Amino acid sequence: MSKYDYDLFVIGAGSGGVRAGRMAAQLGKRVAVAEESRPGGTCVVRGCVPKKFMVYGADYGTAIREAVGYGWTVENAKFDWPKLRDAIQSEVSRLSGIYATILEKNGADLIQERAEFVDKHTVRLTKSGREVTAETILIAVGGRPWMPEMKGSEHAIMSDDAFLLDEMPERILIIGGGYIASEFAGIFAGFGVKTVQAYRGTRLLNGFDPEVRDAVNEVQSNNKIDLRFGVSPTEIKKSKGGYIVTFDDGTKIGTDLVFMATGRKPHTSGLGLENAGVEVDKNGAIIVDEYSRTRQDNIFAVGDVTNRMNLTPVAIREGMAFIETRFKDNPIAYDHSDIASAVFTRPPVGVVGLTEPEARREFGEEMTVYTTKFRPMKNVLAGDPQRCFMKLITEGKNERVVGIHIVGDDSAEIIQALGICVKAGLTKADFDRTCAVHPTLAEEIVTLKPREENKTTVVSKG
Asked: What is the C-alpha to C-alpha distance for residues 387 and 219, in angstroms, rounded to an integer?
């Protein structure tokens, strides 16, 4: 008999933790998974899933307004926020239940308590006080929203709160310029809320390709979002009609709701990592090697808590690689390169591979940039001025495709297939040989021409 209670103890029942726990249990390992909230983690409970439903809800409102251009008459249309909110939460509960059932059906114990480290092989369950030992421990607790300290910050909400609002405000001020801020700004504007998005930088989506950032600025403006750049909040004060937010340039904005979307941090505070000798970086992210192992050979970490690439499918793949490494004697380091991702602005962003600045640093002048910007066919009769932007980046004489960036309808769906192309190392010639599907937005990706400036200043094919 093992001297430990479990072969594997997983802290966190999000996508990565549940996948690893299920797979280990299927191998006959004794497994327990502890979760302080609801099974499903950030994505299912308070992230991608409920947020995407809200995006769909906002899109239906736009579709109703634009249907007039296609001959439809829509009378007495109105938006019922409580109805959508409750429907979303019902679906979240259903999905969370599925996560719990998956673990139970495969023989893993689901412990709905917070677990904290006592030592490298022992955790304490904070509700019951029970101590549990395990030969291997996997940390998969994800991240949590973060806001800077300022006077009156207690008056603001964060992303976790946005799904459970009692009512829709007439006005909202969203602080932040990242994907969460930009997505929720599009959602609230789509629900008819007067939306202001304030950001300390000069363009939204820091870290994305510069031309994508410009295109997203246009997307937000087209959605009637009031963008304020170069400002940071210093105080939130409750007023008779809502709140007054003061910024560092002296401006003040009145609003009914303040939404702080200023980032996320790994959820490691109070986890007792110091008791187990597990190291974290300055942001609280657990430091791991390429096999997701911490400095302790029996403790691993996957997902957002490591702050490598904070995407649900990545956490799942890291969890699967952990199982191969730890329990199948088949060390696998998950490859984090060329992973497609999306930002669900309205319309969304889809990207895979390198940005232009990244490609230029890596390949110098041995690169070609192809772009196009056009008004999608659907928008013409709808009277929507929004344009689609596409960008393809290649390197070397063979023009291997190293980056693709799209801002436009269905880009999140399109980029999944294009991610296969980039991962496979296909070339621009492969794209050119592919016949277009007409009339579609996606066909433009196989008919792209070099950006005008590249013809004289960038292209160098030797």
From this structure: 8
Distance CA 387, CA 277 (A): 52
Catalytic annotation on 438? yes
What is the token pair recorded at 282?
């300055």
Alpha carbons within 13 A on the beta-carbon side of 225? 34
Amino acid letter, residue 186: G
Q: Do 370 and 391 touch, CB atoms closer than 8 A?
A: yes
Strands 131-139, 122-125: pairing kind: antiparallel
Superfamily of domain 153-262: FAD/NAD(P)-binding domain (3.50.50.60)
Residue 400's CB is within 10 A of a number of other CB atoms, namely 18
Domain ranges of the chain: 6-145+265-327, 153-262, 341-457
Burial of 149 (0-12, 13-18, 19+ CB in 10 A): exposed
Helices (H), 234-291: 273-276
Amino acid letter, residue 8:
L
β pairing state of 367-374 and 194-199: unpaired
Per-residue pLDDT at 267 exceeds 90:
yes
For the stretch 63-79, pLDDT in tens is 999 999 999 999 999 99
Kindly report the CATH class assigned to 6-145+265-327: alpha beta
Closest by alpha carbon to 93, among 35, 45, 142?
Answer: 45
pTM exceeding 0.90: yes
Q: Which residues contact 161 (CB under 8 A, 6 or more apart)?
A: none
Length of the chain measured in residues? 462
The reply to whether domains 6-145+265-327 and 153-262 share a CATH topology is: yes
Q: Which amino acid is at 112?
A: Q
User: Which helix or strand (DSSP H or E) is residue 350 part of?
Assistant: strand 349-353
Query: What is the per-residue pLDDT across 220-255, written as a single tens digit (0 to 9) for each?
Result: 999 999 999 999 999 999 998 899 999 999 999 999
User: Class of 341-457 per CATH?
Assistant: alpha beta
Asked if 276 and 123 count as a contact pair (C-beta separation under 8 A), the reply is no
What's the confidence (pLDDT) of residue 2?
A: 81
Name the nearest CA neighbour of 220 among 112, 98, 349, 383: 349
> Cα–Cα distance between 193 and 334 in angstroms, integer?
42
Rounded CA separation 399/234 (Å):
49
- DSSP 8-state symbol, 459: B
What pLDDT does 225 receive?
98
Q: Report long-range pairs for 373-377 (Cβ below 8 Å, ≥24 apart).
A: 373/215, 374/444, 376/408, 376/409, 376/441, 377/439, 377/441
Cα distances (Å, whole numbers) of residue 244 to 159, 173, 177, 197, 296 = 20, 10, 20, 15, 49
Q: What is the average per-residue pLDDT within 98-127?
A: 97
Out of 121, 155, 405, 438, the active site residue is 438
